[in-house]
Structures are given as structure tokens and as C-alpha cells.
Amino acid sequence: QGQPITYHPSRQPFRHLGVLLTMDLNFKHQLEATISKVRSMTTELSHSLLSTAQKMLIIETSIRPAITFAMSVVPYTKAETKVLDSLLATAAKKAHKLAVSLPTIAAHMPKHKGGLGCHSLEVEQTVLSIRRLREALDHSGT
Fold first, then answer.
1. Which string of b and e fits 80-114 if b means at least 16 CB within 10 Å?
2. 8-state DSSP, 114
3. d(CA 80, CA 75)
4. 3-class SS at 72?
5. In angstroms, rounded to a whole number, what is the distance separating the alpha carbons of residues 123 and 96?
6. What is the pTM of this model?
7. What is the pLDDT of residue 72?
8. How many CA atoms lie within 13 A of 74 on its CB side?
9. Which tens digit of pLDDT belongs to each residue from 11-38?
10. pLDDT tens for residues 83-105?
11. CB within 8 Å of 11: residues ≥ 6 apart
12. Residues 6+ apart with CB under 8 A from 56
């Protein structure tokens, strides 16, 4: 099309379909961007005058999807998932005006069992990984 081919350094991140990638598949940039975005969103949420129910709705419909969007592409380690999970659990605790020292397991427990109903990202990542593996195994190869 008459356009020159541009050179892109292999370690410089670029955004593709909303995910920060590098040519050497270093996902550190995506993790840092996600953590920064989630911290910003949770800080804004903690300063808002919304009710607890509204805050929890925002956590489940805006903040959690901001994290899980890249999970199908980015292979977060268990430690990285725990960091992201901790940010979500802390936001849920603050939404309920509870001490952040409350055990995270209490945030993960369902509401009918006395928890906050903020399910774990580790479970969600495991489900996504199993789904991807099943799709890969079921693929016809053509």
C-alpha cells in the first residue's frame, strides 16, 4: 500500500486489542498497567458517596472485568493473581466500611455464609485456563 515498514523494538510494549504486549511476550507491562488502573479505580470508588450495594456493583461490573479482560491472553502467575485479588478484596472491605485487616477469606465467602461475596480471581483464572485447554484439545487442527 505504499507505506514503509516500521521497526518496533522487541521489548517496547504496544497495545493490541486492549492488551499490552511485547514481541518477546513479556507481560510485565500489562500487569503494571492493570494494577495501576485498578488502584486508581478503587481509590476513586473509596472516595465516592455511593452506597455499599452500589460500590459492590461497580466492583463486580467495572473493576473485576478490568482485571479479567486480559486473563485469557496474559498468563498471570499465582503471585500476580494474588496481588490483583488482594486489590479487589480490599476494595470490597472498604466498600463495606470494614477494616482492611479482615481476612481475605471472609471477603471471598458467599454472602449467605456471612462473607462479602467477592469471589476469588484464582478460581476465575483456573476456570479460564481449563476452558482454554479444553478448546485447544477440541480443536480439529484445520
1. bbbebbebbbbbbbbbeeeeeeeebebbbbeeeee
2. T
3. 10
4. helix
5. 23
6. 0.81
7. 84
8. 28
9. 899 888 889 988 888 899 999 999 999 9
10. 999 999 999 999 999 998 988 88
11. 22, 23, 24, 26
12. 92, 95, 96, 116, 117, 118
Cell for 4? 514503509
Phi/psi of residue 14, each to 5°?
-135, 155
User: Facing residues of 16 across strands?
Assistant: 19
The H or E element containing residue 20 is strand 19-21
**Residue with the three cell numbers 485469557:** 72
Which of the four pLDDT bands, split at 50, 70 and 90, describes residue 142? low
**CA 94 to CA 111: how far, in whole Å?**
16
Q: Which three cell numbers stand for residue 93?
A: 472491605
Using the structure block, give the residue that is written with the C-alpha cell 479482560: 69
